[in-house]
């Protein structure tokens, strides 16, 4: 059963809030499907932004939100008030226990927003700085790499088949809004792509390769980062120039998101 509740904040009248009490409510089932299932996100062309930071970043780009889910405690918080004031839809209020059962974030301010997946109509530019994630499976690594790429001025990101879904809630959360300034392309085969680039293509490798610090990175280039466990694919190693990051401490390898970030910001340093 849904109970309508009109809310007043600081004298302003806001959209009605609706209490959703059952985990079997169709809206709750839809929300849960978007959070948990990549196939459900693809089918509905929607995803979920979790936390107030992402929702605000989204709205500040004049993008629309379909619906917002929160809790009674969070509903009167200033951060959520700001989001609701920029939003023209319904707010659904859940019990703390139901919200916590759905959310993946834990202790942050309760805010789940359903949005349409952006469609990239822009063709890949084979002369511009590009990041290629080749079978990187951890959502935290993918999101962190998108964040670092955006900060370094790389505007195109390609994910090959097998990589974590770029628009999953977990990757979005790790990206902290970086997605919204990037052109992203998913499920691309490396073999269909690599030879079309007319600029240098580098792949990180901890074996038998020259230091990234010896390369001239002042002009546009492509970075390929490989799988967390197995590293770069044989195809990437064969068709790109391998670079390594010196590690005088002698560890076997660096986390892929750390390695990528080091490469991006060496590129930035050289271009200053």
Name the descriptors.
single chain; 272 residues; alpha/beta; 60s Ribosomal Protein L30, Chain: A; Alpha/beta knot; six-stranded mixed beta sheet; 15 strands; 32% helix
Oligomerization category of the chains in this entry: single chain
Between the first and last Cα atoms, what is the distance in angstroms? Answer: 60 Å
> Could you list the spans in which at least 5 consecutive residues all have pLDDT below 50?
1-13
Quickly count the helices.
10
Report the CATH C-level class of the largest domain. Answer: Alpha Beta
In terms of DSSP E residues, the strand content is: 15-25%
Radius of gyration: 21 Å
The CATH superfamily label of the largest domain reads SPOUT methyltransferase, trefoil knot domain
How many domains, in number, for the residues? 2
Structural class: alpha/beta
SSE order: EEEEHHEHEHHEHEEHEHEEEEHEH
Q: Tell me the helix content.
A: 25-40%
Tell the overall outline: elongated
Q: What's the arrangement of strands in the largest beta sheet? A: 11-10-9-14-12-15-13
Number of beta-strand segments: 15
Main sheet overview? 7 strands, parallel
* Average predicted confidence as pLDDT: 91
CATH architecture of the largest domain: 3-Layer(aba) Sandwich
Assign the CATH topology of the largest domain.
Answer: Alpha/beta knot
Task: Furnish the topology, listing elements before pairings.
Blueprint: E1 2-5, E2 8-9, E3 12-13, E4 17-20, H1 26-36, H2 38-44, E5 46-50, H3 52-59, E6 67-71, H4 72-75, H5 78-85, E7 91-94, H6 96-102, E8 112-116, E9 130-134, H7 139-151, E10 156-160, H8 169-175, E11 183-188, E12 201-204, E13 210-211, E14 222-226, H9 234-239, E15 241-244, H10 256-271
Parallel strand pairs: 4-7, 6-7, 9-10, 9-14, 10-11, 12-14, 12-15, 13-15
Antiparallel strand pairs: 1-4, 2-3, 5-8, 6-8
């Amino acid at each position: 059963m849904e109970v309508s509740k009109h809310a007043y904040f600081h004298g302003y009248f806001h959209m009605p809030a609706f209490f959703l009490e059952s985990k079997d409510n169709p809206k709750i089932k839809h929300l849960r499907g978007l959070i948990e299932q990549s196939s459900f996100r693809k089918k509905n062309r929607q995803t979920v932004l979790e936390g107030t930071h992402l929702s605000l970043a989204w709205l500040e780009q004049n993008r629309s939100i379909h619906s917002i889910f929160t809790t009674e405690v969070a509903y009167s918080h200033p951060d959520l008030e700001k989001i609701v004031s920029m939003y023209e839809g319904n707010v659904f209020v859940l019990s703390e226990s139901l919200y916590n059962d759905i959310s993946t974030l834990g202790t942050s301010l309760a805010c789940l927003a359903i949005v349409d997946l952006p469609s990239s109509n822009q063709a890949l530019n084979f002369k511009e700085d590009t990041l290629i994630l080749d079978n990187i499976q951890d959502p935290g690594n993918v999101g962190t790499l998108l964040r670092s790429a955006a900060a370094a001025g790389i505007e195109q990101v390609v994910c090959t088949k097998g990589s974590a879904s770029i628009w999953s809630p977990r990757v979005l959360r790790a990206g902290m809004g970086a997605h919204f300034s990037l052109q992203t392309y998913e499920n691309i085969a490396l073999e269909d792509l690599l030879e079309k680039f007319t600029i240098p293509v580098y792949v990180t490798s901890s074996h038998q390769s020259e230091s990234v610090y010896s390369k001239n990175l002042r002009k546009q280039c492509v970075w390929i980062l490989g799988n967390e466990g197995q590293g770069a694919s044989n195809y990437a190693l064969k068709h790109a120039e391998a670079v390594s990051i010196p590690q005088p401490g002698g560890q076997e390898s660096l986390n892929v998101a750390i390695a990528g970030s080091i490469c991006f910001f060496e590129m930035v340093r050289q271009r200053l």
